[in-house]
């Protein structure tokens, strides 16, 4: 009984938050103005009518009718209002002319409707559609309904279908938009009919739509525009109005606002003693002010102190603003919560700031003196108060996943500084678990880059980051998705000791880049173009051989390269083929097979010892079959092959046990080619050059590991 009495007292103290500023009655179908204040729909129409606007008060047919809008339950002031006749409104709307001020007949530009907000005393721009472009505050309607039920405002709700005298209603029906007693509900929802599928609700005087709808497109809202601070639907997202705006799913906005509101409300509820102490101090200051105040300022001081006391009383548990916030937190409809919590959080934040920086609004003493505070006022106006950092911007050009994940970001140009950052990441390719998504977190990251070690191979990660300073945590960055390689990354260096034509191969000092410079044989070949030419193949191998498992590595090929072949091969076959390789005839020579045409015909079923991808002049040559052991022309001629553009990086994935090699686009991990390979011995990476060309191995993200070298089937460490 005591708990029930306390709940009614708390709801009673909250009544001030539920009164319309125009009619001073409980809200009925409240609309949210652009200034975030609320007003009854009927009151808003009345105010616009008094301003002379006709045809911009919203479409009455778009609002659902309910028992709350019947003449018996409407406010007395509404019955005295003289509304224009419907036929006159239709003629005005169809003709495009109205009698409101400032509109000229035949005007080229549509008029912008201004609404005088009764709460902030400012003129609010409603746009061209007027009230039709505003959202209904469904959360506020639910709070009003719970308040009415808790304190029994207006008496019991009666059945609308009973014969006089009607019985008390026990059920409501959203589909029928009416309230019923038990007998009438059964009578109007007979078993076996479509109406029997209607789901009963609690009796109510206001039937609301099931979800929050976009006033522009009549579609359910699914996203929140942070730039406009407005809920939008799918159609709004693709319109030019929100082009380039920061739009997030309504679930993200719902969770962020709910966390902020809960945190602020927890702080206020945890400092109830401080609130009560400050109220007592204000009461004492008020009494002292009554004794010492000057007659001219007495009423002003009393009003200021009373308003401050009322403001602090609303911070007590279950009272006023706090009680209303507690009721809003019960809202489960995400778009409705975002709509209501956005304006409520601003008020809670101001109340929290007033609690932290408490000072009585008036003093009990008067000291008549003059003080020049011009210098201090100038300093105050130049103060820049610390704010939370803005959402970081992830540098997608420098962020990538290889052996580890490297994440790089920066703050916007005019953002407040961040002391440290928090990184959150999770896999998106695992089965979804019930409840909210679980993020892994790294706290207090210094700098603007971070290394995430040991990611799972063949996975997709989503990452985000936010900054923090003394003012608190800022907004999260946009999510970035990264694909990890399909197999463990193989670390190796280029070995110039193996291969041919070393005088034309320039290997970098870190042994991760190689360039082939055309020499004299290419010039002589150009001179003997009509009689047949001889070109040399420049070959360089990796210093690591694979003997088991799956391995992956990536490289970048210079788009200006004349002809480059990237791939793998049996270590023994590579050494046999290229230690004393003769010059070959171009363009019919194929360095992939190492056999003549007849030998290839005889062993067509055997897996080849080499597998190469051919790149030339910014293109990749793909054969018609699954094997890459086709020459530049092949038996079927050039028509049997096709070319695709060269990606920024190429990936090679070797499955030793299966004897398969896959060539991938290392940026999107799109497959380019898959072919068989003879894995009867150690297999190592190889690169072939005909003419000029260059290859750069992708740098590992982590530290350099020990270099394992396999030569002639024996492994050793450098």
TrEMBL record:
Stored PANTHER family: E3 UBIQUITIN-PROTEIN LIGASE TRIM36-RELATED, TRIPARTITE MOTIF-CONTAINING PROTEIN 46
Bias type Low complexity, positions: 60-76
Occurrences of domain B box-type (ranges): 209-250
Start and end residues of each B30.2/SPRY domain: 472-706
Domain COS, chain residue ranges per copy: 329-386
GO cellular component: axon cytoplasm; cytoskeleton; main axon
Protein name stated in the entry: Tripartite motif containing 46
CDD domains, A to Z: Bbox1_TRIM46_C-I, Bbox2_TRIM46_C-I, FN3, RING-HC_TRIM46_C-I, SPRY_PRY_TRIM46
Superkingdom as given in the UniProt entry: Eukaryota
